[in-house]
Amino acid sequence: MLRRVVAIVVVVACAAGVVAFQVSRPARAPANPRVFVPSPRFFLDFSPSFRTSIADVYYLYMVQYYGEHVTGDGKLDSLPAMVRLVTELSPHFTRAYLFGAFALMDAQQPGVSYEILKHGFEANPGNWRFPAYLGFFVYAFASNKDKDRIAADWYTKAAAIPESPAYLQRLAAVLLGKGGETGKAIQMWGQVYAAGDKFSREKAVAGLERILPTSKQARMKAVAPLYDTMPRQEFEALTAELFKGYAP
Amino acid sequence: MKQLLAITINTFKETIRDRVLAVIVVFALLMIAGGLWLGSISLGEQGRMIKDFGLVAVSGFGLIVAVFVAASLVHKEVEKRTVFVLFSKPVSRAAFIAGKFIGLCGTMAVVLAGMGLFLFALVWIVAGEASGMVLLAVLMIYVQLLAVVAVTIFFSTMGSAILAAVLGICVFVAGQLSHNVLALTRLGKNPLTEALSWVVYVIVPNFSAVDVKAGAVGEQTLAWGQIGLWTAYILAYVVVVLALAALVFRRKEF
Questions:
Q1: Residue B172: how many other CB atoms lie within 10 Å
Q2: Which of A4, A65, B130, B204 is the most exposed place for a label (fewest CB within 10 A)?
């Protein structure tokens, strides 16, 4: 009987020791930015069959790392290397590029963000999101004089990709107009009008009204190139709206 | 032919009833379901996470089943002395090896089909995507595991079951790396090591070349001709290895 009691006491004491040990551990490791991120080449050479799974593991780690540091110490030193690792292991992982690009903006590294999106567009030329975000990044964060023109170029590229949303063409046209490239802007608005629905057509007419000269002769000269690029019926409908208030 | 069929059916029944197998399958299904949890912390990439980690689980647990069951197939017969009864009848050693292999392939087909269909359903339910690529990836994992089964049976005719299992796993790992090791050796420009690694490259099955897991998450485009070629390569490899296993087994005295 005594033996049994002693055995139970020993087991309970051991169990208590195990629980106490675990409970006394820190809840989680202190925020410690990972200074070493493995090279993508290493995984590509030594684990080609599992490269996308490894990319997923690092993507989850990247999300966690970002969440841990962005509201804490703000140190996101390892983020560029992580984004590069994930995207090189899985070049078609769209969300990894986009998340990485936005996270890097928080890390005050807009240049790296831009490069990552460019790299993403090179790997996924059929995905309109990359040039659209590149255009947005340039427009929102760049400070150079010709940023409107560069953003418009990206939007134009995005709009040219099949299945891209119609608003990209409108954005490109607006920015081309703002950037002083009136000729290109007129062409873009012409495309918006020709391909668009009622809403797009209204936007196109309003956009053209903003950039076209007011004198009838100059206006006719400015819209004349659209005759070669637009379907006849749409061209006539557009010119009818643009010259509504003018004498015949 | 009759003997081969009898051994095949017997091996299939024996391995499918194995409780260890059931435990591993349940564990594999739990691992796949674990992908759901990973998906929930992935910022909208549930489908991708479940597919990727699910396929790794199918591959990993399929490997465990293939290696440990294949390693014990021949040894069980020897230990239980049923092999003496068997060979007292007009059964050739080659038919014995082939029957064991085909029987286990049947079991592996059931196990992998179960895991594959479960994964397919999971992806469909969670991500709303009926991904045929997942099923194709599972099929190619099955084809890879056929080579692992053949190699493990080959090793089990020469040594202990544990050694055969360990070597089977080593061949699986080496098969993932052989292509790149050859490329790396070529960088060294040493003709001897290059020749040696070339021999290893030819002997070890090239699993990295017949893998379509990346295709399931849109990282790879595939052609049916390519898949047919890969399958033919692995089947040819299996035939060679089983022939060698039968040759080694024929020299054994019972």
A1: 23
A2: A4
Q: B133 vs chain A: nearest CA distance in angstroms?
A: 15
Residue whose structure tokens are 């140190």 = A75
Q: What are phi and psi of B38, to 5 degrees?
A: -60, -40
How many helical (H) and strand (E) elements, i.e. helices and strands, does chain A have? 14, 0
Question: For each of chain A's 248 residues, which pLDDT tens digit applies?
Answer: 788 899 899 889 988 888 887 777 766 554 444 556 777 777 777 777 788 888 998 999 888 888 888 777 777 888 888 888 999 999 999 989 988 888 888 777 888 889 999 999 999 999 998 998 898 888 777 778 777 888 888 888 888 898 888 777 777 777 777 777 788 778 878 877 877 677 778 878 888 888 888 888 888 888 888 887 788 888 888 888 888 877 77
- If one counts the domains in chain B, the total is 1
Compare all CA atoms of chain B with the CA of A45 and give the residue at the minimum distance: B180
**ipTM value > 0.90:** no
Which residues of B fall within a CB distance of 8 Å from A65?
Answer: none
- Kindly report the number of other CB atoms within 10 A of residue A232's CB atom: 8
Q: Which tokens in the block code for residue A32? A: 């410690």
| Interfacial residues of A (vs B; Cβ cutoff 8 Å) | 45-53, 56, 59-60, 63-64, 90-93, 95, 99
Cβ contact B67:B148 at 8 Å: yes
pTM (two decimals): 0.76
The Cβ-side half-sphere exposure at A65, using a 13 Å CA radius, reads 25
Q: Pick the closest to residue B245 from B136, B129, B167 (CA basis).
A: B167
Q: Domain A146-248's class? A: mainly alpha
- Structural domain spans, chain A: 37-124, 146-248
Q: Which residues contact A113 (CB under 8 A, 6 or more apart)?
A: A100, A101, A102, A104, A105, A137
Chain-centroid distance of CA B160 in Å reads: 20
